[in-house]
């Protein structure tokens, strides 16, 4: 059975939980207390991930660390329809990869600001993080606006959401916990609503559900 | 004591929590912010912790108190004793500091949310409440003259899986105490022993008027669950409250009765607002323009 | 910036309001939750729930209502009136809780608002058709952007003096125009909005949108590099609630009456005008009821309404009611039609039965008119399951025909449905139905008041014994005279009370702590009936039949009064 080394309040772990929910996979959750005890920096956890980072997933004898890598692994292995990560479409893989790296930038900015405000990571340069996060949000908002204009609902030019959407969603939806308001990113907010309406979407503390989709409504 | 940024005597003359005892390491300096002042502290023994204003070259010591699992200090002249919390010393209980969380909101809003039951089905869905069990039944609120604290009793709310042994939901009894302007304690039936009550505390450290560190802790009968599991549970609950708190407008707690619309479920919150008004608190609140403050119904 | 409050500002693009979205906007320091209801109406509300100030923009747009995320309060489309407070399903909010709404106009592909409007959104010349450009937020003040547009402008575009005070118009050589608008969110942040004077589609549209996007982004980047002085932010403006709303409502006597909590598990429109609700208990077993019983429902807007249960025997895990939605009807049917949703908790009374079914008749005749079918349906189901003899006559309009067809069908052969009859046709049918009186048979009639009166009259004329003609009015159309002043004496408790004009006996009893069961409180249901030992009664109800009224041994305390100076009641 799949095992997820997980922390409830981590956005990176949330990415994996979302992927597992969307794919309908059952898994065993092994809780690692990131805060306040820093279990992910314990000698015991270093044996699982020498980088001391969450999440990690184990699938029989395979151990995968890094949220983005896990998304790729799970989608490539378990998504029979190859929608979340279309392995046979190099152009789409290129697009997805760009946004996976973008998601990493969100971790070092929006997530960092959240750690600063909520979990007292006082060595983080908060103003810089927020400023950089706003720059990223401006880029994404413009991108999503023009995608909408061209009939695309998701981050990549695809009919269905991809792992790029999953990778970007958590630290966007949690940004306000780091003092980064989304009031001026309307295209991002619309995309967030659409994302929340993906069947089997699940919440985490800090994330609210959206109302029902038109197609599910009478 | 020197000049302070905050000038509100009511909040200056209080003991404030700044760290859990668990987080104090011998001879390792810690830093925090209280009422917009940078503070440093250093534990030199199990009984003694030094606290000073970080910017003060003379390192003049502030008063320190180790109590109820927390380190407390003050920038003013508080009464020598902290409020009573006898359960903390009951020998068969476990005291678990479940973590401090930064929230961009005033202390008053955070306390009020802690006193609120009506949000359980909507914010803590499936854990502390669930639809359609949304009704908040009548409960009693009083302000004890002797102890100067607010007491809400006979509170009941439906909780799914309220007891370890049962998968069914049931009404759980709650008692709330607000013995300090920024601290509250709730008692609820223990899931492992119905005859006893667990205590859950929130001690709020006002970092600024619209920014707090909320220290949470549990004082429970349970001898089975691991500390980490207890902390993780409390973190989930607090993580769910946080976005609600940070989306409240205004961030300061409005004490004027016409600022918001209370319903009967809010009796304890209304008592709390009046109590703060009567004390003349101005920091982190929008003071009331009401003339008649004595009337409490 | 005081002058700006009478000015219209665009605060969103039409495309910012997709299906069931809530848009967060800000103007001059005030935040708005803007949402389009399923009927197309654009609501602009202050972005905070009146209860605890939580932003409504994090809530849920349910199509006709907006639901707050904190305590599930719901606010109605258009009026912004609060329709549901889950914490107090039994509260009768005699007060109207209404969020603050602002003017909303949709023009030039944008949503406009104004705090204190002076006229409507100004006309902008040359924009009969248009394409809305991507709005660009800029960390600059209104003035800074205004200066830039007026003094610097944009390359290859000629600045045109605009007649409107809100638009900065530019012209290309081709004659095509661009109009810019500035939405001051706060002192140091604004949104630059623009429209293009042609309606374009497809690739051309993308091209133009991208072109102007880069021009506007360039303006943004230039302005944000400028070292303009930062003004202090405007304090977020927050409206106060009324004095009445600022007080906690009193825990009323009413609440004890509505002690059952049920959730709506089904809400189905069974004909054009009739809605069926299935109500299930949240916790305890629902009390047993007898055929013909009704429950009182405390509606979310404080109204109290009675509805007969349509359940058949053995259906003990839920109550079923059917509600006719009156087109111009009062708040009751409107509330049920519009504001009650599946999953809502509502407070109801235990069932009362003042229209009991007597099962000792040889044969029973039911005469149902319109929605008056509901208690009779339950009765007929009971007789049917006991295999007792009955016949069922149902007068209805074709539009409601579908509502109970299925249930009537299940009652077996002795049922007749009459559709769209005139009054005369109806009366002659009833004459026929009642032509053979029998002391062993009973007639139950329920429907519009006039129909009941006529049926009783026909029955009496045909020789039926009055006590065998049983009926239930849905409402009392009599004009109630409550001018008189008199004494009541309570024989069993030896208390004497004064009933002043303007108050009913029931009210006086309740005020003095004497509990008496009541329900409709308009003289129709009979729940508050008590025996009279002495005194003349001024009957004003429609519950007692004429011989009961003549005898003068019982009184409906909610409407009837004394003719004499005093009444001695057997309580």
Could you walk me through the main structural features you see in this protein, from its secondary elements to its overall organization?
The complex is a heterotrimer of chains A (218), B (297) and C (571). Chain A has 2 domains: 2-78, Glutaredoxin (3-Layer(aba) Sandwich), CATH 3.40.30.10; 90-196, Glutathione S-transferase Yfyf (Class Pi), Chain A, domain 2. In chain A, helix 4 packs antiparallel against helix 5 and helix 5 crosses helix 7 (186-196). The mean pLDDT of chain A is 94. Chain A is an alpha+beta fold and 218 residues long. Chain A contains 7 helices and 4 strands, in the order βαβαββααααα. With 297 residues, chain B is α+β, with helices and mostly antiparallel strands. Chain B has helices at 9-12, 107-115, 120-123, 227-246, 267-279, and strands at 16-20, 30-34, 37-43, 49-53, 64-67, 70-73, 94-103, 140-144, 149-159, 170-180, 183-189, 197-208, 211-220, 253-254, 285-286. Chain B has a 7-stranded antiparallel beta sheet. A 3-stranded antiparallel beta sheet of chain B has the order 1-6-5, with no helix packed on it. The longest helix of chain B has 20 residues, at 227-246. Chain B starts with 8 loop residues before the first helix and ends in an 11-residue tail after the last strand. Chain C has 571 residues and is of the alpha+beta class. Chain C folds into 4 domains: 2-225, Rieske Iron-sulfur Protein (3-layer Sandwich); 254-348, Translation factors (Elongation Factor Tu (Ef-tu), domain 3); 363-472, Rossmann fold (3-Layer(aba) Sandwich); 486-569, Beta-grasp domain (Ubiquitin-like (UB roll), Roll), CATH 3.10.20. In chain C, a hairpin with a 7-residue loop joins strand 14 and strand 15. Chain C is elongated and about 100 Å long. The model of chain C has no long low-confidence stretch (mean pLDDT 89). The B-C interface holds B 112, 118-119, 121-123, 131-136, 138, 243-244, 247-250, 254, 256-267, 270, 297 and C 31, 47-48, 50-55, 58, 69-72, 85-91, 97, 236, 238, 240-243, 245-249, 251, 261, 263, 282, 343-345.
């Amino acid at each position: 059975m799949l095992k997820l080394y997980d922390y409830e309040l981590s956005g990176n772990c949330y990415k994996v939980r979302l992927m597992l929910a969307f794919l309908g996979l059952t898994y065993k959750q092994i809780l690692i207390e990131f805060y306040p005890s820093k279990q992910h920096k314990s000698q015991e956890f270093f044996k699982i991930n020498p980088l001391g980072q969450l999440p990690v997933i184990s699938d029989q004898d395979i151990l995968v660390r890094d949220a983005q890598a896990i998304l790729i692994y799970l989608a490539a292995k378990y998504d029979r329809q190859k929608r979340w990560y279309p392995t046979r479409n190099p152009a789409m893989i290129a697009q997805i990869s760009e946004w996976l790296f973008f998601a990493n930038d969100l971790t070092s900015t929006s997530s960092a600001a959240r750690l600063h405000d909520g979990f007292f990571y006082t060595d983080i340069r908060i103003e810089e993080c927020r400023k950089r996060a706003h720059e990223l949000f401006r880029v994404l908002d413009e991108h999503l606006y023009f995608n909408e204009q061209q009939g695309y609902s998701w981050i990549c030019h695809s009919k269905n959401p991809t792992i790029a959407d999953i990778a970007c969603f958590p630290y966007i939806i949690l940004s306000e916990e780091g003092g980064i308001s989304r009031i001026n990113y309307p295209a991002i907010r619309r995309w967030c609503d659409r994302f929340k309406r993906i069947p089997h979407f699940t919440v985490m503390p800090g994330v609210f559900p959206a109302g029902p989709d038109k197609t599910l409504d009478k | 004591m020197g000049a302070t940024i905050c000038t509100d005597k009511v909040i200056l003359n209080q003991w404030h929590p700044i760290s859990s005892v668990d987080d104090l390491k011998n001879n390792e300096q810690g830093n925090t912010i209280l009422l917009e002042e940078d503070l440093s502290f250093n534990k030199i023994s199990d009984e003694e912790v030094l606290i000073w204003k970080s910017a003060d070259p003379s390192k003049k010591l502030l008063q320190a108190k180790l109590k109820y699992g927390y380190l407390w200090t003050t920038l003013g002249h508080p009464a020598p004793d902290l409020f009573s919390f006898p359960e903390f010393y009951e020998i068969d209980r476990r005291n678990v500091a479940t973590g401090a969380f930064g929230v961009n909101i005033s202390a008053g809003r955070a306390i009020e949310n802690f006193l609120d039951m009506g949000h359980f089905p909507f914010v803590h869905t499936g854990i502390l409440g669930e639809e359609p069990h949304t009704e908040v039944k009548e409960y009693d609120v009083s302000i004890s003259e002797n102890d100067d604290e607010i007491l809400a009793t006979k509170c009941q709310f439906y909780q799914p899986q309220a007891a370890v042994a049962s998968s069914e939901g049931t009404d759980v009894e709650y008692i709330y105490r607000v013995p300090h302007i920024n601290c509250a304690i709730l008692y609820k039936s223990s899931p492992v022993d119905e005859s006893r009550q667990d205590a859950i505390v929130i001690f709020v450290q006002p970092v600024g008027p619209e920014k707090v560190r909320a220290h949470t802790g549990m004082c429970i009968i349970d001898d089975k669950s691991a500390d980490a599991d207890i902390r993780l549970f409390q973190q989930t609950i607090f993580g769910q409250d946080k976005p609600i708190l940070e989306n409240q407008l205004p961030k300061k707690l409005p004490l004027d009765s016409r600022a918001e619309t209370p319903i009967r479920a809010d009796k304890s919150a209304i008592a709390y607002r009046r109590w703060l008004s009567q004390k003349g608190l101005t920091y982190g609140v929008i003071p009331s323009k009401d003339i008649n403050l004595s009337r409490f119904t | 910036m005081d002058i700006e409050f009478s000015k219209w500002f665009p605060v969103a693009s039409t495309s910012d309001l997709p299906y069931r979205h809530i848009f967060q906007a800000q103007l001059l320091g005030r935040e708005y939750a803007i949402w389009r209801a399923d009927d197309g109406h654009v609501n602009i509300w202050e972005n905070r729930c009146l209860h605890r100030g939580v932003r409504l923009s994090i809530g849920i747009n349910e199509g006709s209502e907006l639901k707050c995320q904190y305590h599930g309060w719901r606010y109605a489309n258009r009026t912004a009136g609060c329709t549901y407070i889950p914490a107090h399903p039994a509260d009768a909010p005699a007060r109207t809780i209404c969020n603050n709404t602002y003017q909303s106009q949709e023009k030039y592909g944008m949503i406009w608002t104004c705090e204190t409007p002076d006229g409507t959104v100004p006309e902008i010349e040359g924009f009969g058709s248009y394409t809305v450009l991507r709005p660009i937020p800029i960390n600059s003040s209104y003035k800074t952007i205004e200066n830039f547009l007026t003094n610097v402008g944009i390359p290859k575009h000629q600045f045109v003096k605009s007649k409107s005070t809100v638009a900065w118009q530019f012209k290309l050589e081709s004659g095509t125009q661009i109009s810019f608008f500035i939405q001051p969110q706060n002192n140091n942040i604004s949104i630059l909005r623009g429209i293009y004077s042609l309606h374009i589609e497809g690739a051309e549209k993308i091209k133009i949108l991208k072109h102007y996007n880069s021009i506007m982004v360039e303006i943004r980047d230039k302005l944000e590099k400028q070292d303009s002085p930062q003004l202090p932010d405007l304090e977020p403006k927050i409206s106060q609630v009324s004095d009445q709303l600022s007080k906690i409502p009193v825990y009323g006597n009413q609440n004890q009456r509505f002690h059952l909590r049920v959730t709506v598990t089904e809400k189905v429109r069974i004909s054009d005008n009739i809605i069926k609700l299935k109500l299930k208990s949240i916790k305890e077993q629902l009390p047993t009821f007898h055929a013909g019983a009704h429950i009182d429902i405390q509606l979310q807007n404080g109204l109290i309404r009675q509805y007969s249960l349509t359940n058949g025997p053995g259906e003990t895990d839920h109550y079923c009611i059917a509600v006719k939605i009156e087109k111009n009807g009062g708040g009751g049917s409107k509330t049920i039609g519009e504001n009650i949703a599946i999953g809502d908790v509502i407070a109801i009374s235990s069932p009362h039965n003042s229209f009991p079914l007597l099962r000792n008749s040889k044969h029973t005749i039911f005469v149902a008119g319109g929605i008056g079918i509901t208690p009779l349906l339950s009765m007929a189901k009971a007789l049917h399951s006991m295999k007792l003899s009955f016949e069922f006559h149902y007068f209805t309009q074709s539009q409601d025909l579908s509502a109970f067809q299925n249930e009537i069908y299940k009652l077996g052969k002795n049922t007749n449905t009459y559709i769209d009859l005139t009054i005369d046709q109806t009366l002659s049918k009833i004459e026929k139905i009642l032509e053979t009186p029998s002391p062993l048979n009973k007639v139950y009639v329920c429907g519009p008041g006039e129909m009941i009166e006529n049926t009783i009259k026909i029955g009496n004329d045909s020789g039926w014994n009055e006590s065998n003609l049983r009926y239930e009015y849905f409402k009392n159309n009599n004009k109630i005279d409550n001018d008189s002043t008199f004494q009541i004496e309570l024989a069993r408790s030896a208390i004497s009370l004064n009933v002043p004009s303007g108050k009913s006996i029931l009210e006086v009893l309740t005020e003095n702590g004497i509990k008496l069961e009541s329900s409709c409180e308009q003289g129709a249901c009979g729940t508050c009936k008590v025996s009279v030992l002495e005194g003349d009664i001024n009957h004003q109800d429609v519950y007692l039949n004429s011989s009961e009224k003549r005898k003068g041994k019982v009184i409906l305390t909610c409407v009837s009064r004394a003719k004499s100076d005093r009444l001695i009641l057997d309580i």
